[in-house]
Structures are given as structure tokens and as C-alpha cells.
Amino acid sequence: MATNNYQSKTARLPIIFLFLYALGGVTACGDPPPIILSISPRIGTPGERLTIFGKNFGEVQDKSYVTVAQIFPTMSSYIEWTDTKITLRLPEFGESAMVYIQRGDKKSNPALISNRDSLPQPVPGSKGDKSPRILSVEPESAVIGSLIIIQGSNFGSSRDTSGVFFTRERSPDLLNKIPEWIDVFDTEFGYELWSDREIQVRIPDGAASGNLEVRTPWGNSKPVFFEIVDKPGAKIFGDKQTYTILYTVDIQTKEAPASNSLYLWFPRPVFSSSQTSVELLSWTRAPFMENYRGTTLFKFNELPPDTAMEITLSFRLEVYAVTTNIRESLIKQGGTFPVETVYTLPGPLIPSDHALIKAHTNTVVGRERNPYLKARKIYDWLITQGGIQREPVTGGVLEALDQKQTDPYGAALFFCAMARAGGIPAIPVSGVLVDQSQRTIRHYWAEFWIDGFGWIPLDPALGAGAAPVNFPLREDRAVYYFGNMDNRHITFSRGEQVLSQMEIRGKTVVRERDFALQNIWEESSGGLDYDSQWGDVIITRVEN
User: Tens of pLDDT along 471-520?
Assistant: First the structure.
């Protein structure tokens, strides 16, 4: 009704007034936009007075107005309007709302207000006393990757299994087919602070404007609205494929002195914006820790000699095809990505600081400054001149540069080395491809980060046509596999998974070029002598 009243009032304005307004006589195009500095109260109820402090509101209201959760208050709701202060009565709104001021064609920054009536009311002495409560989120709107501060109570002294959940980015036709919520992943730099009254966390890849909530073992908070702004494009998820997989390791002990021990780190399928609902279904032996830093950890003590045992894990997971639509001109450089992270620094597998890699990167990208276009130039060079082949090639990134020959593993690392040398955060991704006969093949690809957007996938090997014999390779592969990904990629690690030994004198085993990029797979101590045989990832069921 408030909207209709506003429109009817506009329709009755004299023609000359509307003419002057169109020419900028009421609010000139050059006028600065209204700016909200603060609101009081931050937690209110419908019908209560809300005071907005700021500047550039205009000395008189004229055609300017306030919206609360996209609701237009009635004209009788306004009590005071000056250039620096507006007072009005709050309209009906939900659990939380964004407050804006519209003055001509200029819109203010948002301010968040929470509905006091929707806040949880604990019952003394009950479990409800421990439910988390959000009192404020600062800032109230931000871009992907930005650090936000959540203040409230009952978050817990440490995070443990708790988390912050954002509304997930979904296309309108998939609202009921993709999970509504998205958690914060390890590759989104994790939580920078977690205390009982304050959480500092970065907005994860795949988040969209909508509700935000804190979840702990004692309950979920009431959601508050959070707005994602200035996104230079969209990430669309679709064409879901559900897989049930299993993989096995066989252990055969030989000599086994007393007090020996054996640890096995099983890679877990990762949870990400495109790979969801990862569920451990079964195991042949109970794990020591079900989810330890992206692995399932097994521990065996005092194994007897000449003993054979088999450990098998089974998972169910959902994989979505990803399509990214980027408006290159809207990409902004810098501001959200933490400067010194593992995704920007050189390492043994990614020698991005080597003089040859730097020089070659400069040659390929030239004077381009847009990080998205720089990444595309690197990708185009790799698939056309990088010598990518399906058969394994020995050596690392430097050998690939020298010989102009590499395989999917080397191509993923090569892209990351050049991207990081060019100032673009990038991570190698490892896992398996699923071919047309539901057989899996170890495979490697990559992702790079764009500020305000998130991670963008690419597969240089498939883009170059270096696919397994039975894999359904697309005709537009060169274009498609930059920014898009099919649902036949099952991911076991994003970036390098660096684990620590469990015992100081333990003897570790590394499995290079396997389906997960982790530095430890096995660790033994106490003089244990054994053989191990890791099996391939097996698809046991596929559901559309």
C-alpha cells in the first residue's frame, strides 16, 4: 500500500515539477549521494522510532524516501527530515533488514537493523541459554573475500565444530535443487578470530545476499540479513551428479617389534561451493579421527607380525557443473585477499619466484593489468604452446618450461606458478575424472582468485585436449575449461594439504602424483616393517 500511495502522489505532481525533476532541478545529477553514518536503535521493533544520522539527505524530503527491507514506509511515518538526520517509525519487517535512503537517482550505503521481537528469548536454566545470538555484523555489506566482524554472545570460546553460514549463490531455477547454505572453506582463509562474543571471518566464495547465521553444537542463531555487493559477475551451479565412492588400502606387516604404531591419512573428498553434501557412509575399521584437517586418520598400535588388514572408506557426495559469467570491466584489483597466504607464495612444487618463471610470465601477459585477462593469457599459452599431453612426464615446472612438454599434473602446477608470478592467487586442485564407463582416472586442474568474485576453475589439460580415452571431451573445450567445470571432476584437495607428523621419530611415506596433494599418507614408528597398497577410487553408484 505504501508503494501505491507514493506512486499516486507522484502522478498528481504538476507537470512543470516533473519536467524540472527530469532535468535535475530537484536533485541535480552532480549532487553527492546520501551517506548513512549510523542508526539508532540498531535493534528495534515495528512502530518504534528509528533515527538515521549521516549527510546529504537534503534539507527537505521532497521525493526522497527511506526503505526498510525494500518496504516503503507510509508518508505519515516520517517525523523529521533534515540534511543530516531522519526520524521515522519502522514499518513491519522480518528478523533483520537493510535500511537505505533514496534521494533522486542516488542511493545511500546500507545500514542493518535487527528485529527485537525475533531475537531468541532464553528460558533460565534451559538449553536455550547457550544458543548463539548475533547482535551486529560489521560492515553490513561487503564484497566476496572481505573480513567481517560478528558480535553477539554464546559463540563458544573456540570454534571446534561451530561455523558461520552464508546464503548460497543459486540461480532462480535451482533454488530447491542446491543447498541453501554455504560454510567457510579452508581455501577462504578460515576464521581469523573466534571468541564467545566476537567472530572475525571472511566472506566465502559462493556466498550471496541473504541470511547469515552462526551454528554451534548448542543451536543456531536467529539469521540476520547480509548483503554481498560489487560482484563482477555470477557463478551458476547446475547439472548435479551424485556419486558413491570407495577406496582401500591393504597393509601387510612383516617385522613388528613391541610398542610399534601406524598412522594412515585417508584423503577425504573436499567440501566446496561446487562439491557438497560430502558424507562418510561406512568404514571397515573405525577411524581414530573422522575428519582431521581434510583427512580421515587411522591409528594402529602394537600390530603383530605377519598380519594382513584392509581399510576401506565409502563416501557419498554431490558434484555440480560450474559456469562463471564475468564482466571484465567491473573487476577491481586488491582489497580483499590477504597478502601473505600460501596461495600467493612460492613453494617446492610452485616455483613462482624463479627468475625464469617470472620472465616467461612477463612475456606471456605483457602489459595486461586485469587479473582475469592475465589468467586467460596464461591459460591460452599453456593449451596452445605448453606441450600438454595425457601420458606422464617426469620433472616439475622448470623442466616443463625448458622442454615445452608436460602432463595434467605439471600443467596445473605450471599455471599456478605463472599466475602467482603475475600477482594472481592460485591453487592446484587434485582428484579424479569420471569417464563414460564410470571408471576414475587421477587428474589435476587449478583455480585462481578474483577479488570480489571468488575462485574461478580451469583445466589446462582438458582445454588442450589431453583427456583419457573414454572421457567425453567437449568440442568447445578450449573455451569451456577456462572459467567452467563439468560434474565429472571429483575433488580431493584444493591447494597443497600440509600435515604434521604424529610422532617425532615417525617414518613418513609420501605418495606423489596421487589423487590428493598431501605431504603425508602414512607414518610408522617403533621399527614397524610393512607393505602398503593403495587402491584406485571406485565409483559404486551414480545418481542424477
Answer: 999 999 999 999 999 999 999 999 888 899 998 889 999 999 999 999 99
Phi/psi class of residue 366: alpha, beta or left (left: φ > 0; alpha: ψ in -120 to 50)? left
Question: What SS3 state is found at 170?
Answer: coil
The 10s digit of each residue's pLDDT in 190-220 is 688 899 999 999 888 888 888 899 999 889 9
Q: Which of 271, 294, 296 is nearest to 286 (CA)?
A: 296
b/e sequence 516-534, b meaning 16+ C-beta within 10 Å: bbbbbbbbbbbebebeeeb
Q: Are 237 and 273 in contact (CB under 8 A)?
A: yes
Domains of the chain from N-terminus onward: 2-116 (2.60.40.10), 123-229 (2.60.40.10), 235-544 (3.10.620.30)
Amino acid residing at 441: I
Measured CA to CA, the distance from residue 487 to residue 33 in angstroms comes to 45
pTM value is 0.75
Residue 399: CA atoms inside 13 Å, Cβ hemisphere, count? 9
Phi, psi of 343 (to 5 degrees): -85, -5
On the 0-12 / 13-18 / 19+ scale of CB atoms within 10 A, 257 is exposed
Distances (CA, A) of 201 to 63, 150, 394, 426, 462: 39, 8, 40, 20, 35
Cell 598380519: give the residue. Answer: 307
What are the residues whose beta carbons fall under 8 Å from the beta carbon of 299, sequence distance 6 or more? 261, 262, 263, 288, 502
* C-alpha cell, 489: 571432476
Distances from the Cα of 163 to the Cα of 80, 191, 197, angstroms: 41, 9, 14
Q: Where are the beta strands (DSSP E) in 143-288?
A: 147-153, 163-168, 181-182, 191-194, 198-202, 207-216, 219-220, 224-228, 233-253, 261-267, 275-283
Per-residue cell: 68 = 526498510
Backbone φ and ψ for 145, nearest 5 degrees, come out as 95, -10
- For residue 121, what is the DSSP state? -
